[in-house]
Structures are given as structure tokens and as C-alpha cells.
Amino acid sequence: MIARVRPYTRRVHFGVILPNYGAHSSPDGVRRVVEAAEKLGFHSVWTTEHIVVGPDAVDPYGRVYDPLVTLGWIAGWTERLVLGTSIVILPVHNPFHVAKQVATLQELSGGRAVLGVGMGWYEREFEFMGVEFAGRGRRGDEAIRLVRALWSGEPSFEGRYWSFAGATADPLPSPLPEIWVGGSSARAIRRARELGDVWHPSRGSDPAHVRTVKEQHPELRVIPRTVPERVDAMVEAGAEGAILTFPDEAAMREFARGRALVTSRTARIRSRGSACGRPPWRSASSGAD
């Protein structure tokens, strides 16, 4: 059966969540999904993070490949796909280290990196790592500001948790990677508006919530992490695309056929967007890439 081609009235961004987590995660499994995403015309691929979990979260987060290391590996054998994290749990990390990793990924990948961040929901992970769970939002906000300061080459930074003066942290990424902010709370939305480039909600936001937020903040770009069954409702609610979890490669192919994703056209659009320092999905136009 031939999939119905879904028309959209503006350009939308479609990405794929990679199987870098789960009991059966493997290099071959990740590679197969990446190669399928590139062949089918998806815009991006995304990795998930959990570092250490208790018995209650082993399924599916007991086995997880590091998200940025995995994207660095992928960068070496892809040319077109945007490479993003969905998400890095920012408050458990030293932001200097995150800034360096992403700046390196941006340079080695030819400008294809996106840093998706969240504040974390699994308290035991923080306990295992000796990081205070309370106050993680405040630390995360400051960490985003610090990362941006390092990427911009600012010689000094004064914060509550981190400060520096006379610092150099080359390479400076060019263009500056976007920061996508996860979470569905009012504070997460404010963080996305004030400190991020895209609001990237997941299971905490349904299409009705996305519509409400877009009506309140029409300037805010919204690209949720969701499932294929919700994509049309999300786009109709105002989302500029979706980052999708597929059950298998057949579902990826069905989705791509139904939306007429075209690899060559996507590559040309991405090239033009990068040349002017703007991600390719920012501009509005008719149809989906």
C-alpha cells in the first residue's frame, strides 16, 4: 500500500531518535538507523543520555552509549545529517567539559551539531553521581549561559556556581550550535525562550499543550520529541517539526514515503542554511523537505 503524502504549509524538520540505549543497543544497530535516516531524507539524528540508573530504570536506560561520543563517531562517516542530543542532562555535567565536547563536534562535523539539554527527572541518577537534585534548574540555567560565553570567546564570566577570567577555550564553534531546551514545565518554556533556540518537549507535552504555548509565544520555535502517530497533530498545533522514535526501519520508510522526504533537496537546503549561519529549518516555505 502506498503511503498518503502529507502536505504541509511550511517547511518542517524531521529527525530520528537513535537506538543508543536499551538492552539490545549496538554499533551495528545505530549505524543501520543512521544510514537509513540519511538515505530516506531525514534532517537529523539524535542520541539519548542516562549515565547511571537504579533497578527501576534499567529498562530501558541500564545500557546507554554516551550521546556525544556516539555523535562524534557518526560525524566521521556522514556528511549531511544534523547531529543532536535529546537530551544531555546538563546539571550532572561540568559545563566547561560540555562546551568543549560540543565545540569539537561542531568543528569535526562541519557545523552539524545541536546541543539539546534537559534538567533531569531521575533523582537517583543525581544521588549516584553525588550531585544535588534540588536547585538543578538554577545550575542548568547558569551552565547554558557559561557554555554560550565559552563558545563566543568571552574572556570572563561571573556566576553563582562558576566563574572565570582570562580564559581561552578554542576552538570557537562556527556557526554557534543551537541549544534546544527540553521539559514541559512553565520554567522549561521560559528557559527555552530566554536561553535556548528551540523548545524541545517530550512526553510531558501533547498537541494541545504545544498549541497553547505557540499561541502564547508565537516566536518560539517548537520541535518536540514524539512518535509518528502524533506528528500531524503536533504540526497542526504549530510545531516546526518533530524528532521521532520509530519501532523499526520499516516504520521509518513508511513515514518518509508519506511525507515525500527527498535527500538531495534536503542537502541543498542545509547547505544554503549553513552558508548564511542559519539552520535550514528556520526559514518558512511551502512543503516539507
Describe the protein.
This protein is of the alpha/beta class and 289 residues long. The protein has a single domain (13-275), classed as TIM Barrel (Alpha-Beta Barrel), CATH 3.20.20. Helix content is 39%, strand content 13%. It has 11 helices and 11 strands. Strands 1, 2, 3, 4, 5, 8, 9, 10 and 11 form a 9-stranded parallel sheet that branches. Strands 6-7 form a two-stranded antiparallel sheet. Strand 10 (225-226), helix 9 (231-236) and strand 11 form a beta-alpha-beta unit. It is globular, with a radius of gyration of 18 Å.
Spell out the blueprint of helices and strands.
Elements: E1 13-17, H1 27-40, E2 44-47, H2 58-61, H3 67-75, E3 82-85, E4 88-89, H4 95-108, E5 113-118, H5 123-129, H6 136-151, E6 156-158, E7 163-165, E8 178-181, H7 186-195, E9 198-199, H8 207-216, E10 225-226, H9 231-236, E11 241-244, H10 249-258, H11 263-275
Parallel strand pairs: 1-2, 1-11, 2-3, 3-5, 4-5, 5-8, 8-9, 10-11
Antiparallel strand pairs: 6-7
Contiguous runs where pLDDT drops below 50 for at least 5 residues: 1-5, 263-289
Which structural category fits the helices and strands? alpha/beta
The gyration radius over C-alpha positions equals: 18 Å
Give the overall form: globular
List keywords for this structure.
two-stranded antiparallel sheet; 39% helix; globular; disordered N terminus; single chain; alpha/beta; 11 strands
